[in-house]
Amino acid sequence: MPELPEVETIRRSLLPLISGKRIAAFYSFTPEVFSNFSTRAGLEGAVVQGLSRHGKYLLAELGDSVLMIHLRMTGKLLYEDQLPGLDGISERLRTSRANEPSGMALPCLRAEDLPPHTRALIVFTDGSALRFQDIRRFGRLKLLPADDFSADRGLSGLGKDALSPDWTAEDLIREAKHHAKAPIKGVLLMQDAVAGIGNIYADESLFRAGIRPDRPAGRISAARLTRLHEVVQAVLERAVGLGGTSFRDYVNGLGGKGHFQLELAVYQKENQACPVCGQPIRKIETAGRGTRFCPHCQH
DNA sequence: GCCAGCCTGTTG
DNA sequence: CAACAGGCTGGC
Predict the structure, then answer these.
(1) How many CA atoms lie within 13 A of A17 on its CB side?
(2) Are A69 and A6 a contacting pair, CB within 8 Å?
(3) Strand C–CB A1 distance below 7 A
(4) Do residues A125 and A90 lie in contact, with contact meaning Cβ atoms separated by under 8 Å?
(5) Which pLDDT tens digit goes with each residue over A125-141?
């Protein structure tokens, strides 16, 4: 579901609500969603010190450990001020766990008591909670030691964040050279080349840069790649400013929708008129993904 | 690289 | 009923 602008919007919406809060309890209802939660050590009792993002990964900083969150396609992270199923539980946690050693039984909480597709729940000592909901179960949570991010393959292999000033046109030119035969859209989607771009923003950026998504990356001039780099960052910034793209499931940490869908030029617009030339937008498959572009404006 | 696979829900 | 969906992984 979410790409960089959506994850960043979620991060911004949650940060002021959870930072400084102490985790009272962690519940998981779908084991395969968690990579290494054999122990709750590092989670319960920890205080949220920050919430950062790299590409599409969210990182909740918990002192000695970091909770890594990837929402994949349908994952949502929702702040809950008061959850019906939690009545009384936070109070019991506060009074019973304050000075207890770990390993004590948690108050019972069943998935049936929570909204559908709830995969995990982090309850804070003030009774508020963070709920991880994911229809397709593609999303992943992982607890990592704070001093060793390479403990996760996905994280350690990421390229520079697409919104970071560190990511330069030269970086894009180098990657295009390195993957000369790959379609340029495929290069934009490679998270180890540059982190954060997904299907929506790849199509929208290529449209605005006037480049065909299926053009081999090695056959695009440095000048056009420089333009593409500029456009990608402008599109991502604009999308963050509008709170992301909500055409289907995506909502921020408070359940609110984004507005970038109002500015989509080609994504999900097949057979509709190109906003620039009026020719119909075409849909093809590139890099294994549905791809929309204007055959008249993009070369 | 490409492509199936992972899942469930929605749409044509 | 089949096709498709905002992503990533692992096996050719």
Answers:
(1) 19
(2) no
(3) yes
(4) yes
(5) 999 999 999 999 999 99
